[in-house]
Amino acid sequence: MRGPDLDRERSEQKRSASEFLTLYNQGLPLEFPRATAAFLAEYKRQYADQFKDGFWSLDLHRKKFMDWLPGHLKSRES
Q1: Mean pLDDT, to the nearest integer, of 6-35?
Q2: What does the alpha-carbon distance between residue 46 and residue 1 come to, in Å, rounded to a whole number?
């Protein structure tokens, strides 16, 4: 019998923005832009439909935020 899938449980756990911020930046390669509280707030405003329960999760938001951030940074430079 298999034990619990701890990675999956960790990934699906509901988190506050500050918890997500810490976990998002952990182990991120140096060439990737870092998340900040301000960027998380902007993302949450832009994609409010993803936050019906008000929480962040690595499973639902990490990849989407990672894809959004570089384009957002470029648009701010223009």
Answers
A1: 93
A2: 43
In contact, 47 and 57? CB cutoff 8 Å: no
pLDDT tens sequence across 24-37 = 999 899 999 999 99
Q: Is the pTM of this model over 0.70?
A: yes
Give the residue among 50, 51, 24, 53 at the shortest CA–CA distance from 37.
Answer: 24
DSSP of 3-46, one letter per residue?
---HHHHHHHS-B-HHHHHHHHHTT--TTSPPP-HHHHHHHHHH
Backbone angles phi, psi at 27, to 5 degrees: 70, 10
Structural contact between residues 46 and 30, judged by C-beta atoms closer than 8 angstroms:
no
